[in-house]
Amino acid sequence: MNLIAPPDYMFLAMESREHPMHVGGLELFTPPHGSGPDFARNLYESLLAEPKVANMFRRRVGSAMATPRALTWTDDSDVDLSYHVRLSALPRPGRIRELLETVSLWHGSLLDRHRPLWEINIVEGLEDGRFAVYTKIHHALADGVSALKLLQNSLVTDPSELHVPSFFAPRNTSDRPGSRSAFSAIRTAAKLSLDTAGIIPHAGRIGFKAALAEQVPLPLRAPRSMFNVPIGGARRFAGQSWRIERLKTVSTALDCTLNDVVLGMCSGALRSYLLEQAALPEKPLISLVPVSLRQTGANGSNAVGAVLASLGTHKADPLDRMQEITRTIAIAKEMMGGLSQLQALALSAAFVSPFAISSITGVSQAVPPTFNVVISNVPGPTQPLYWNGARLDGIYPASIVMDGLALNITLTSNADNIDFGLIGCRRSVPHLQRLLLHLESALQDLERAT
Amino acid sequence: MNLIAPPDYMFLAMESREHPMHVGGLELFTPPHGSGPDFARNLYESLLAEPKVANMFRRRVGSAMATPRALTWTDDSDVDLSYHVRLSALPRPGRIRELLETVSLWHGSLLDRHRPLWEINIVEGLEDGRFAVYTKIHHALADGVSALKLLQNSLVTDPSELHVPSFFAPRNTSDRPGSRSAFSAIRTAAKLSLDTAGIIPHAGRIGFKAALAEQVPLPLRAPRSMFNVPIGGARRFAGQSWRIERLKTVSTALDCTLNDVVLGMCSGALRSYLLEQAALPEKPLISLVPVSLRQTGANGSNAVGAVLASLGTHKADPLDRMQEITRTIAIAKEMMGGLSQLQALALSAAFVSPFAISSITGVSQAVPPTFNVVISNVPGPTQPLYWNGARLDGIYPASIVMDGLALNITLTSNADNIDFGLIGCRRSVPHLQRLLLHLESALQDLERAT
């Protein structure tokens, strides 16, 4: 018996029908040339035949009946892989649209607490012959960054390398073949947690009290927006890839970071979307941008912070918006640089703690938002990766939304691409997929302007 | 605002992650001759285009945040049909096996309480060119019998009749075309509730107290069995059709009712299954068999009762088992016949009330089972039915399982067939689909013996 540690426990305690606390990812693959129609099914069957399941994927919550303050992890000695590993298909015509619709529904349903808290779904029936993989892992097992990293455990840089153990198989970092070192930078950052939900336990422990004691000022004031409302349990998911090269050209022209360009794309897209919805606030939207703080200690773990950036959505000109973004990011980073790590953590905690509270008490409407949206940039693989010869075309993160935070934008690099994953409350954020069109237009606007 | 009536309220209050309180049904259809590959998609789109949604399908729970004793129904003025109506596909090869696996997963996930409590999923990709429809309705909206009836609202006896309003469209009994009178007997029995879960609210209201006051003896004692354990949230579903003619031949030879033969099939199948699992109790399994009591009042509503029948599973000979079934059913009916309606209801309530209690408190392991399994026979259509020209080949009910009651067998007539729907807790009832093979063997045994 193994008491669940407080941060992980919080994700279980906070979870409700309306607030599933799992993270997910959608991966798109092109099967190797000449492979038959059973390629996806064969992968599915190879997962089912995996002889061993790693400890973290065998863990389940000890007793749903126990008092909520004493949840334990127990080892599920008899993991039913046919429950956790699934094979599905898209309805005709099998476009990306049908895929996103399907993933939206899956991401809105709760994991079964009587079982280890993960699922993987291999999806065939895409009209272009590709296949997809949707994975869902409870945040009590892994935060968003670790989850994405875990998914990549069975991927290799060599397309001819077959029969790599599945991501849920036991593995030892020291006995990996060298061909898998492409993303060792990610692996060594095992405790890196850049997603917002990952900050919340810190908020719970450090919270307002520390922030107040430190007298840390909140530098920006967020307007109320359609994204800062109580949410329902259903989700809408959308994802798309952009060539990094296009963003790099803009960042070079503007002498800003790649992430500033990402924020600029989001800014333009959110402005267009809010105008369409007749819901653009007069004041600019404020984005929470998780950042990695300095390294702490010999174990290589990173502390996680977050800065607030104005997205300048009140301005019509894309370059004016970029200016506001780079300016507020610079202020935030300077402020963060002048803080001790505890202060930085406390500041980050203060940003997100209203959400931790509102998720439990449902009072979010009474708390003015500290920020309007989370835009999280997670490091991904830098080289093309393969799964049993199938090329990974995209990894689209599906994160967590909460009361008061109905939209989350998480992106990750993948070889020559940046892959965006958008997740929203289905009721509060209608036509979420239109944000993809607006992201493309916003990038085009920046390209034209520079 | 509209307070939710106590019986319906109970299904909401009792519901938890492990105890979804929805009923479902799987329907199989053969598209009309010469229809193209888009037949299922066209049906899906015609459902999405339905201009109006009937009151009961617009209702949602007023406030999930309200105190649990004051839930209300509110009218959802903006029903998002694209959430409730879904189009899916089976993975290759698209056998019935893949269909049942998919429905098993769907039946284990909770409906979203922020929305009207129903879903319909049209499934294409069956290898034989047929398509399927899985529907899920919360028991607070409709009990199992009414739900099956509702599904049939858009079905007609005339294969050339097209564009019948969908089952969730508003309709008025008096303005139906005459061609839909095939199952008017079902429709007039609108308040008939023959599924076990439907009895539980009566148990809550009448309960043990009445049963004790009436001094009603419990005639049979059930053994502990693998079916009478706490359950998890995941489900396994299986369904299959049998020709009524085959059962009729047996019932004529044995001079018993068709339902006795159904119980005989279940008896043989459960015995074989439990032997395989090395879990056959020494004493015979006891089945709860919901029955309709006499008519009450002018509105044509029926009261619902239940009798206990021994399934004789301790006996190896199929005719010995049939004898035990018919004998105990006769005793139960005789006893029921000598009771007032209140007594009969109280008796039925006493049978099921331990489950109502155990579902809330989780104490089922301390309460010895009153019965081991529910076998519920629900009247269905007596003539072949069609949906926009597609022939209904089968209706397989998916009911509710509970703590202490991990297996439910519900069957319904459909023209010349009897369609069995089996639902079980995925963890407690492994290899549920083997019961289908055993049901066929059990029927063959009875055919050989008579």
Automatic annotation (TrEMBL), chains A, B:
Pathway: Lipid metabolism; Glycerolipid metabolism; triacylglycerol biosynthesis. Residues 5-262 form the O-acyltransferase WSD1-like N-terminal domain. Keywords: Acyltransferase, Glycerol metabolism, Lipid biosynthesis, Lipid metabolism, Transferase. The keyword Acyltransferase applies. InterPro entries: Acyl_transf_WS/DGAT, O-acyltransferase_WSD1-like, O-acyltransferase_WSD1_C, O-acyltransferase_WSD1_N. Its EC number is 2.3.1.20. Residues 302-446 form the O-acyltransferase WSD1 C-terminal domain. One of its GO terms (molecular function) is diacylglycerol O-acyltransferase activity. Pfam families: WS_DGAT_C (PF06974), WS_DGAT_cat (PF03007). It comes from the Bacteria. One of its GO terms (cellular component) is plasma membrane. SUPFAM superfamilies: CoA-dependent acyltransferases. It catalyses: an acyl-CoA + a 1,2-diacyl-sn-glycerol = a triacyl-sn-glycerol + CoA. GO terms for biological process: biological process involved in interaction with host; glycerol metabolic process; response to hypoxia; response to nitric oxide; triglyceride biosynthetic process. Belongs to the long-chain O-acyltransferase family. This is Diacylglycerol O-acyltransferase.
